[in-house]
Specification:
Layout (H helix, E strand, L loop, with lengths): L1 H7 L15 H14 L21 E6 L5 H9 L3 E6 L3 H13 L7 E4 L3 H7 L7 E5 L17 H10 L5 E6 L2 H13 L3 E3 L4 H5 L9 H8 L5 E7 L3
Parallel strand pairs: 1-2, 1-4, 2-3, 4-5
Antiparallel strand pairs: 5-7, 6-7
Helix pairs in contact: 2-4
């Protein structure tokens, strides 16, 4: 079953998997981290997704492409009764997360990760299992010929709709105006999602508890304005 799910993932929505070669200490920290945090998709998903976590949790959220983990680790600490799954295929990003977890004293009991294509994980998850999805500063694939590789698409919104509980949010942040417009168009065209903004302030204001990220700081320095979009999974 796992192999069939992997074959259904038709596009690579991320770029390179590796950056700078990891130092031995980084590699060891990453190996230790993945040994206890990595979700094994070779097994069938549990009927109750909260059972994936060492600590008792009431609900589960997903962050796709967590980068260095600034936002994800902040949410993990703010919401100890929520389980968080973080997806990051970029090895150096996962290594930064591993180092941060090691520095903080060990793996939080409400955190698990996956280090490959998020679509495979989405297809593995049970229907209606998630209380939220965050897609923050994803690769914008700015060239038109690469737009099909943008993670926001009708097919992936179908995936989101399947795994989100009714009323659960899908949050998207980006500093690339063409990708913001793209996401608005796709989500407003999808019957399972409605945009929650009532005024411009709603998408110009960072999310509650937003820590900022290094990507966002770079965007602001370069004169780009971030947008913070929130969509709600409808009951349809």
């Amino acid at each position: 079953m796992a192999e069939e799910r992997r074959k259904r993932a038709t596009e690579a929505f991320y770029g390179r998997r590796h950056g700078k070669t990891l130092r031995p200490k980084q590699g060891a920290a990453l190996e230790t981290f993945l040994a206890s945090a990595l979700i094994d998709l070779r097994r069938d998903p549990p009927s109750d997704l909260t059972s994936l976590f060492a600590d008792p949790v009431e609900s589960v959220r997903l962050e796709i492409g967590f980068g260095g983990g600034e936002h994800l680790l902040g949410e993990v600490a703010r919401y100890p009764q929520t389980g968080f799954i973080g997806v990051e295929p970029f090895v150096n990003g996962m290594a930064k997360m591993a180092a941060a977890v090691e520095d903080a004293g060990g793996l939080p009991g409400n955190l698990r990760v996956y280090n490959d294509d998020a679509t495979v994980l989405l297809d593995w998850l049970p229907a209606g299992a998630l209380a939220g999805i965050d897609l923050l500063y994803p690769d914008p694939w700015p060239k038109k010929r690469h737009w099909k590789r943008r993670f926001v698409s009708a097919v992936n919104l179908d995936r989101f709709a399947r795994v989100l509980k009714p009323g659960a949010p899908f949050r998207f942040a980006s500093d690339i105006d063409t990708y913001v417009d793209w996401t608005l168009q796709h989500c407003r065209a999808h019957p399972a999602f409605e945009w929650c903004a009532a005024s411009a302030a709603d998408w110009r204001t960072p999310y509650d508890g937003w820590p900022g990220t290094r990507y966002e700081a770079k965007a602001i320095r370069e004169g780009r304005t971030p947008a913070y979009l929130t969509f709600r999974r409808t009951s349809q």
